[in-house]
# Entry
Amino acid sequence: MIYNAKFETMPRDELIQLQIERLQSTLNRVYRNVGFYKNIFDENKIDIEKIKRIDDIRQLPVTTKDDLRKSYPYNMFAVPLRDIVRIHSTAGRTGKPIAIGYTRNDILNWSDQVARVLAAAGVTENDFVQIAFDYNMFTGGFGLHYGAEKMGASVIPSSQSGNVERQIHIMKDYKTTVLLSTPSYAHRIAGHLREMGIHPDELNLKIGLFGAEPWGEATRGRIEDALHLSAYNIYGVNEMMGPGVSGECGEKSGLHVNEDHYIVEIVDPRTGEPVQHGTEGELVITTITREGFPLIRYRTGDISSILEGACPCGRTTLRMERVAARTDDLFVFNGINIFPAQIGEILKRATGIDPRFQVSIDNVAGDDVMEVKVEVVESMFNDEIKKIMALKNGIAASIEREVGATAKITLVEQETLGTTTGGRVKPVIDNR
# Structure
């Protein structure tokens, strides 16, 4: 279903012209109202009146997380505080928090963006939507809530509680048809269903939208098999707005970007130079309708690519590939560049699920040592010692063979690993 045909199916030439007009308006606003942007444009001798084509955006300097932290709390706001009706924040994984302000119009736009993403996955006004994301300073739960309500669906704000059995009882009692959560939380729900002796067909689930952490096709297949639903990828950035930047349609061949609100680029994370469509790089996003907290060429730290060609669904917007990893997750171990996602794929194959895990790195007597802690279901601890040792040894051997690093494997109970705001496990603890 196409929720907002005017913008989702707008001819490309008209959409690009709209982007240019909105970009020029945004640049003028931030130059007048945000000291950071006035200073950085002046320092780089940027004449914003000369930004007349989409490609001209590359002349502009990028904005980074550090820039936002240094501007904490309100120095990046582009409107008076009296016009801010909502403040969210994200502490990230290190450093100061980032305060994010929303005007009333920002909230309305956010609702529309998320409604489009939900509708693209097949959600309708007749659905019961259970939102198992946190409702706090993290943006996820609220944005999804707004979008579902805007399209007329019935919202069940169950949040991401530690009590997974409670989530399942809510699903059964309220006849939930749509689940919104992280993919790892969906796996936990599936595991508890098995332990409770509940067959997925006893539920009414038909659609799941999952995001806030990297996941691939293998994970999609496991979730769909375990919960008997159709799984879709959604993408958002806390600093941008939250969920609603992009989402998959029924084709499941890339995430449609809401281009009337965002200009997306893919750049080489080392050089900052643009890469060709189809080539992986860092996702850089510019907001072009945001009032309270506009961002110019924001380096998201997410690794993705732009897909070429039109989508059979009829939408004319660009499609981005699912986020494969994060630039700030990359760590160096004994001279080897490693993404946690590489280890995650090994763990999925070894355990048959998509377990939460954490990599800890220390330096002992001058040598780097790595430990990988993996959350597993309680029943695994009832296996014979031989089976447990075989699993740990198999994981360690695969990491050494495929990644080139030696690691100690530790199996821990579920809920053992701490989470960041938004329910994501901090992937790497570097104590060196």
